[in-house]
C-alpha cells in the first residue's frame, strides 16, 4: 500500500534523500510542522540564535565542504532576517538551499500574522525560488532546489512552504528525473574558443592568470596548477580564490586590487593578456575600468554567460565549468610546441616583489599590530587551519598575511561585504569539517552584530576559536574618514571598554582570553589552541590607528596604488 506522509514528513525525507547531514535553523509558527519529524531524522539540526546566523552557518558549511548548505526558518520576520545571508551567498556563488515557512495558502495576500512576500523579496537574492502549493510537489521541489544550487553557477535557492501544505497528506514518491528544459548550464568550452585562447597565450609576452572563486567552486585546484606550470605564467588570486593555488609557489603573485599587493596589482596593469578563469572583473579588482590593464587582451572563462564581457570585453569568451575548461586548455597546450619561457617577465615580477613587499612594524612595547596576530597564528598552526573572516580591515590583513596553501580554508564574505559574517560562518565550517582547526578572525564592530551565535557554538558543542582584533572602531570606515574626510570621524569610534569581550565569551559558555601587549600574543594563542572541548575567544587590544595598505582609492586607477599612509598623503592633490 502506498505510504501516506504529511508534507512536513515528505520534506524531511526529501532532505534525507539529498544526503543532507545538517540543517541550520530556528523554528516558528509557519514552519513548526517540519520541526516535528526532524526529531526522528538522522539529520542534525543546529539551533541558531538568529535567522541571519542560520543562513551564514549554512554558507560557512558550504564554503568549507563544497556541499550544499541548508537553512530552515519560519515565515515573515524570519524570512526577512534570512535575506542578508541569501544575498551574501548569491554574490559569492555559494550553494545553499533555504526552506522557509509561509502562512496558509488560504491566507496569502491577506496580511496574515507573520506573512511576508518571501518569494517576491528573495527573487533578486536567489538563483531560483519557488512557492510550493501542493504537498505532492515537495519531493520534486527539493530535488530541483539542490540541483539548481549545486550546478552551473552555484548559488542559493529558496523553497517557500505554506503551513497548510506541510500539514496536508501526500502519497510518498521518490523525486523524479530533473525536468528543467530552460536550464542547461555549459560544462565544456567550445573547442574553437579553446584553440583561440591557446593561440593568444602563445603570442603573449606579459600574460597573467587572473583566477577567481569560480575555480574553487569547480574544484579545479589541480588542473589550475598543472596549467599554470605548463604555460609558465604568473598568477593572481582574488579574495574569493585565496588558497586555490599555493601562496608558496613561485608563480603565485598573491591578491590584486584595492588592498592587494603591489606586484599582483601592477602585473595586471602591465600585462598584455589576462587569462581570466572564474573571475568577474569586480570593481575591487579593476579600480576604474577605463584605466584597467589598458594593453591587455582578455580570455574570459566563466560558467555564467552573463558574466562574459559584462564589465570588460572578452577577446576570447569561453562559457564552461572552470575545471573542465582547464582540462581542455591543458590538452590543447600539450598538442602545441613548448610555451615561451617568459624569463624576463618573471624576473621583473620577482624584482617588484623584492622592492615592494607587504610590511608592517611591530614595536615590542606595543600596541599590538593586527598583522602580527595573524602571522603568529599562522606560525603556531603551521598554516594548518581554516580561517573565517568578518568584513573590514581584519579581513584584508588576514587575506594579505596568511599563507594560503589549500582551497576551502579561507572563508569570507566577498561580494556583499557582510559584517557579522565570521562567527556564524565559522560555526558552519566547523560542523562541516569537525577535525579542522577553525579560527574566526573578527573585528569588534563585526562581532557585536552576530556575537550571540557564540551561544550556539557553546550549546551545540562546536568548538570554534575566535581571534577578535579590537581596535575600538569601525576600522575600515574610520580609515576612509581619516583619508578622505580630513580626519573628521563621525560615528566610527566604538567603546574601548564596553563590552568586555572575554567576559562576554565566558557568559556565552566559551573560554574568554585577552592579550594587551605583543609579548602576550603567542602565549594566549597557544592556550587557545590547546582547548578543544568548547569555543574560545581571544580579545587582542590592537592599534586603533592602524590602516590597511597597499590601497587603491575607490574609483581610482590601479596605477595610483599607495603603499603606505605616507605614500598616500604625498600623492594628494594640494588643490
Structure description:
- The protein has 575 residues and is of the alpha/beta class.
- The protein folds into three domains: 4-171, 3-Layer(aba) Sandwich (Rossmann fold); 191-355, 3-Layer(aba) Sandwich (Rossmann fold); 370-549, Thiamin diphosphate (ThDP)-binding fold, Pyr/PP domains (Rossmann fold, 3-Layer(aba) Sandwich).
- The chain is built from 23 helices and 20 strands.
- The chain has a six-stranded parallel beta sheet, sandwiched between helices. A six-stranded parallel beta sheet has the order 11-10-9-12-13-14, sandwiched between helices.
- Helix 15 (370-381) packs across helix 16 and helix 15 crosses helix 22.
- The longest helix has 15 residues, at 51-65.
- The radius of gyration is 24 Å and the shape is globular.
- 53% of the residues are buried.
Compute the number of helices. Answer: 23
Q: Classify the fold: give the CATH topology of the largest domain.
A: Rossmann fold
- In round numbers, the mean pLDDT is 97
- State the CATH architecture of the largest domain: 3-Layer(aba) Sandwich
| Alpha-beta content class | alpha/beta
Amino acid at each position: 500500500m502506498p505510504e501516506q506522509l504529511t508534507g512536513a514528513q515528505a520534506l524531511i525525507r526529501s532532505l534525507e534523500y539529498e544526503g543532507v547531514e545538517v540543517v541550520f535553523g530556528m523554528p516558528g509558527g509557519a514552519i513548526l510542522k517540519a520541526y516535528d519529524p526532524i526529531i526522528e531524522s538522522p539529520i542534525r539540526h543546529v539551533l541558531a540564535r538568529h535567522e541571519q546566523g542560520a543562513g551564514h552557518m549554512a554558507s560557512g558549511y558550504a564554503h568549507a565542504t563544497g556541499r550544499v548548505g541548508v537553512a530552515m526558518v519560519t515565515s515573515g520576520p524570519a524570512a526577512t532576517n534570512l535575506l542578508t545571508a541569501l544575498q551574501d551567498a548569491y554574490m559569492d556563488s555559494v550553494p545553499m538551499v533555504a526552506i522557509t515557512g509561509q502562512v496558509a495558502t488560504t491566507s496569502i495576500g491577506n496580511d496574515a500574522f507573520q506573512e511576508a512576500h518571501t518569494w517576491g523579496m528573495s527573487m533578486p537574492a536567489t538563483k531560483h525560488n519557488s512557492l510550493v502549493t501542493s504537498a505532492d510537489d515537495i519531493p520534486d521541489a527539493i530535488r530541483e532546489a539542490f540541483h539548481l544550487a549545486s550546478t552551473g553557477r552555484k548559488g542559493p535557492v529558496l523553497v517557500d512552504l505554506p503551513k497548510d501544505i506541510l500539514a496536508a497528506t501526500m502519497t510518498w514518491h521518490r523525486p523524479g528525473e530533473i525536468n528543467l528544459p530552460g536550464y542547461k548550464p555549459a560544462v565544456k568550452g567550445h573547442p574553437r574558443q579553446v584553440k583561440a585562447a591557446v593561440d593568444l597565450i602563445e603570442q603573449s609576452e606579459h600574460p597573467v592568470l587572473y583566477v577567481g572563486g569560480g575555480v574553487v567552486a569547480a574544484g579545479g585546484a589541480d588542473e589550475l596548477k598543472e596549467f599554470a606550470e605548463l604555460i609558465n605564467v604568473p598568477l593572481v588570486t582574488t579574495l574569493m580564490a585565496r588558497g586555490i593555488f599555493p601562496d608558496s609557489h613561485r608563480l603565485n603573485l598573491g591578491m590584486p586590487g584595492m588592498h592587494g599587493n603591489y606586484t599582483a596589482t601592477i602585473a595586471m596593469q602591465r600585462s598584455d593578456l589576462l587569462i581570466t578563469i572564474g573571475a568577474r572583473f569586480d570593481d575591487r579588482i579593476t579600480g576604474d575600468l577605463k584605466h584597467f590593464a589598458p594593453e591587455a587582451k582578455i580570455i574570459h572563462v566563466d560558467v555564467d554567460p552573463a558574466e562574459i564581457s559584462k564589465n570588460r570585453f572578452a577577446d576570447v569568451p569561453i562559457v564552461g565549468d572552470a575545471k573542465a575548461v582547464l582540462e581542455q586548455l591543458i590538452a590543447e597546450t600539450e598538442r602545441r610546441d613548448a610555451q615561451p619561457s617568459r624569463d624576463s617577465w618573471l624576473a621583473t615580477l620577482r624584482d617588484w616583489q623584492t622592492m615592494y613587499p607587504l610590511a608592517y612594524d611591530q614595536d615590542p612595547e606595543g600596541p599590538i599590530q593586527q598583522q602580527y596576530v595573524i602571522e603568529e597564528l599562522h606560525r603556531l598552526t603551521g598554516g594548518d587551519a581554516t580561517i573565517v573572516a568578518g568584513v573590514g580591515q581584519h579581513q584584508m590583513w588576514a587575506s594579505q598575511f596568511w599563507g594560503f596553501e589549500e582551497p576551502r580554508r579561507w572563508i569570507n564574505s566577498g561580494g556583499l561585504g557582510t559584517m557579522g559574517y565570521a562567527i556564524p560562518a565559522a560555526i558552519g565550517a566547523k560542523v562541516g569539517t569537525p577535525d579542522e582547526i577553525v579560527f574566526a578572525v573578527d573585528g569588534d564592530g563585526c562581532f557585536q552584530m552576530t556575537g550571540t551565535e557564540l551561544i550556539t557554538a557553546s550549546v551545540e558543542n562546536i568548538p570554534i576559536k575566535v581571534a577578535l582584533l579590537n581596535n575600538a572602531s569601525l576600522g575600515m570606515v574610520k580609515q576612509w574618514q581619516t583619508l578622505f574626510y580630513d580626519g573628521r570621524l563621525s560615528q566610527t569610534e566604538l567603546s574601548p571598554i564596553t563590552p568586555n569581550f572575554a567576559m562576554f565569551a565566558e557568559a556565552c559558555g566559551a573560554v574568554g582570553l585577552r592579550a594587551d601587549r605583543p609579548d602576550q600574543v603567542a602565549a594566549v594563542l597557544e592556550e587557545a589552541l590547546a582547548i578543544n572541548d568548547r569555543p574560545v575567544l581571544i580579545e587582542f587590544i590592537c592599534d586603533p590607528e592602524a590602516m590597511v595598505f597597499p590601497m587603491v582609492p575607490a574609483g581610482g586607477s590601479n596605477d595610483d596604488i599607495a603603499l603606505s599612509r605616507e605614500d598616500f598623503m604625498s600623492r594628494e592633490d594640494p588643490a
